[in-house]
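Action item from last week, closing it out:
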Amino acid sequence: MDTYAPGTSPPSFDKQFVRDYLETLDWNKTAPGPKLPAHVIQHTSEEIRRKRCGGYQTRTARGTA
């Protein structure tokens, strides 16, 4: 989270990997969406956890949590 500055938006913890995967499929982009394979879910959750935990550790190391 070294890129955070007061008054700005912090880095996004979005699910871009999921969006990228969905763009490779042939579907009409209406509900219900396609089921996600386990590897997409696992990769996305690991990335989000890594980014969120990294941000928490950065803030607490600075004593600002």
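Closing note: The mean pLDDT is 77.
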